[in-house]
Design brief:
CATH architecture of the largest domain: 4-Layer Sandwich
CATH class of the largest domain: Alpha Beta
CATH topology of the largest domain: Glutamine Phosphoribosylpyrophosphate, subunit 1, domain 1
Distance between the termini: 28 Å
Strand order of the largest sheet: 2-3-1-9-8-10
Number of helices: 24
Helix content: 40-55%
Structural class: alpha+beta
Radius of gyration: 24 Å
Strand content: 15-25%
Largest sheet: 6 strands, antiparallel
């Protein structure tokens, strides 16, 4: 895992070295083991900061070039099946000077071009410059586990692992993207290829792009979760066997490392199952990490006891930590900088401290259970939503604006009745009716970004093969997972230079799960029915069927300790951007929903840290 960046002066002028240093400095938290700069020519430069995990030798440092220096690569991530690809390339006559995945990736691209992406099994974002063709190739992994941002204007083309790498270059100004701000209020992240900065875009999951001075930027989609069809010939026993096989294979791949691999352990079925399968064929011990709070709060009792029980059963060393209010105060001023993009979920805070604790205990790599809930239906509110749809049916075949409500329950029911998007993703900030009232002038009617999910809803349900349950997984694979859950994991854990690996989101496993019929994957009476049947073979009932409470942070309790201080940031933001109707904003600030206050505070701080620099 690393930090990557690069810059091309479109006017073929010499690049100021200070620009390059600024990019490198902004990425060094991602790769403290080595940082390097490679001038391909005086107007084209690559930057790499390395977290050494596979082939720790300096020979695998980047930027990495082939023998004749035609191709230059910077790469963030891991290619888990690199040994198989290397053997295939050696059979074709390729020679290798290193033992890692970096050289395999570069020589795979030289041999196969963009088709190498079909062979890669891993999490990655990379860039390759071809000096002969004077062209740049950029790619992001299928699921979107690793980020890649870019900016293209009349003078510069610049890319990086984080927005801050581009912003800190000093050549791309900040310009707030109000449509992205509104989309954030709905999804707690920015969907599609946009960011909170108008001048910076991102590569989407399963997408690659080429850039040259002749043709500019051309984007191409090479993987799309919506393209997979349900296979009704799959039977339950077959599904159980194949999912278990693929999960075991995925976990084994993610044990590939030249450093020790740890585990984020909540004590729930997902992380415990990973831990059990990690321990198979493993001679040495395994470190698990769990975090709790000094302040306990309504609706959350912590997971330490469950994690202790699981660690005892699994024979894992459990390393615990507790977050205090003073820790929250310390991180708050830097949190918007750490989270990088607009990510509304406060769970980034405990993830930051989990990463910090892992690193201080000598761990650079951890496996985590992200993605299992979305693939296997692990949320109680998903079950309630499906049940509601059994009783309420649309009154019209086409979308109608009749009867809109601010109240979430009434809004949900009216959306179902009038054929509007009733499930826009697993993360909900404000519903569209609330946003329309809160925003000065209301929601722009022609915004493709704000209506991105609604347009996908209409397109998906135009097919006779569509199912509501499958939609829930697909839309979270498209928006919430890559741009919220995985980005909070990447940005906040990588702040301490710790790589998170997500075995449930191996693309082979995801592709298979997307073909499993609804009656096998979903049960209205219980969460994760298929995964639990697999887990029953490995874990005790106390773990498999423990009640899920989710990972949270007591932001409401923390905000209550100094409300005026937190509200001041929101008011300052609104005085600058004039985004919110003051009357509606005051209603939110005077209300009791502190979760929404956090969403507004987070947006405000994100903006304010950028206009201050």
């Amino acid at each position: 895992m690393c930090g990557i960046g690069g810059i091309i002066n479109i006017n073929n002028s010499k690049i100021d070295p200070n620009i390059i240093e600024n990019i490198k400095d902004s990425l060094e938290h991602r790769g403290p083991d080595n940082s390097s700069i490679k001038y391909i020519n005086e107007s084209n430069c690559f930057v790499h900061t390395r977290l050494s995990i596979i082939d720790l030798n300096d020979r695998s440092n980047q930027p990495f070039q082939n023998e004749d220096k035609r191709y230059t690569l910077v790469f963030n991530g891991e290619i888990y099946n690199y040994k198989e690809i290397r053997k295939e390339l050696e059979d074709l006559g390729a020679g290798f000077t290193t033992e890692g995945d970096t050289e395999v990736l570069l020589k795979g691209f030289i041999e196969y071009g963009p088709n190498v992406l079909e062979k890669l099994r891993g999490q990655f974002a990379f860039a390759i410059y071809d000096s002969t063709e004077e062209s740049l190739f950029l790619a992001r992994d299928r699921i979107g586990i690793k980020p890649l941002y870019l900016s293209n204007n009349e003078n510069w083309f610049i890319f990086g692992s984080e927005i801050k790498a581009i912003e800190k270059s000093g050549v791309v100004p900040f310009s707030e993207d109000v449509e992205s701000y509104i989309s954030y209020l709905r999804h707690l992240c920015v969907p599609g290829n946009r960011t909170g900065n108008k001048n910076i875009l991102k590569l989407e999951p399963g997408e690659y792009a080429t850039f040259s001075l002749k043709e500019g930027l051309i984007r191409n989609k090479y993987w799309d979760p919506f393209s997979f069809e349900i296979n009704n010939d799959i039977h339950e026993d077959e599904a159980i066997d194949e999912v278990e096989r693929l999960l075991k294979e995925s976990i084994e791949y993610r044990k590939v490392s030249d450093v020790e691999v740890g585990l984020f352990l909540s004590g729930g079925v997902d992380s415990s199952l990973i831990g059990k399968l990690m321990k198979e064929n493993k001679k040495s011990g395994l470190k698990g990490f769990n975090i709790d709070y000094e302040d306990h709060f309504e609706g959350y009792k912590g997971e330490v006891q469950e994690a202790k029980y699981a660690s005892s059963f699994l024979n894992i060393e459990l390393i615990e930590d507790k977050i205090k209010y003073s820790d929250f105060q310390d991180i708050l001023n830097n949190y918007s900088f750490y989270q990088d993009d607009l990510i509304g979920d406060e769970v980034g805070i405990p993830l930051y401290f989990l990463g910090k604790n892992a690193r201080s205990n000598g761990i650079k790599v951890v496996q985590v259970g992200e993605g299992a809930d979305e693939l296997f239906y692990g949320y109680e509110h998903w079950l309630r939503y499906i049940k509601l749809n059994k009783y309420i049916k649309p009154l019209t075949r086409s979308r109608s604006d009749f009867l809109n409500f601010s109240n979430h329950r009434m809004n949900l029911a009216s959306n179902i009745l009038f054929n509007r998007t009733s499930f826009s993703g697993g993360a909900i900030g404000f519903n569209l009716v609330e946003i329309n009232k809160l925003i000065n002038g209301g929601i722009p009617s022609d915004s493709e970004l704000i209506n991105l999910v609604d347009n996908k809803w209409d397109s998906y349900f135009a097919s006779k093969d569509s199912t509501l349950t499958k939609w829930m997984t697909l839309i979270d694979l498209n928006v919430r997972l890559p741009e919220l859950l995985l980005m909070r994991m990447d940005k906040l854990v990588m702040q301490s230079a710790v790589e998170a690996r997500v075995p449930f989101l191996d693309h082979k496993l995801v592709e298979y799960v997307l073909t499993i019929p609804e009656n096998i994957l979903f049960n209205k009476s219980t969460t994760k029915p298929l995964l639990k049947k697999i887990a029953d073979n490995h874990l005790p009932n106390e773990i498999v069927n423990r009640k899920k409470q989710g990972f949270r942070a007591p932001v409401g309790e923390w905000i209550k300790k100094d409300q005026d201080y937190f509200y001041e940031s929101i008011k300052e933001f609104n005085s600058l951007v004039d985004l919110f109707n003051k009357k509606e904003l005051d209603k939110v600030l005077q209300g009791n929903d502190y979760q929404r206050k956090w969403y507004l505070l987070n947006l405000s701080n994100w903006h304010l840290t950028r206009v201050a620099n």
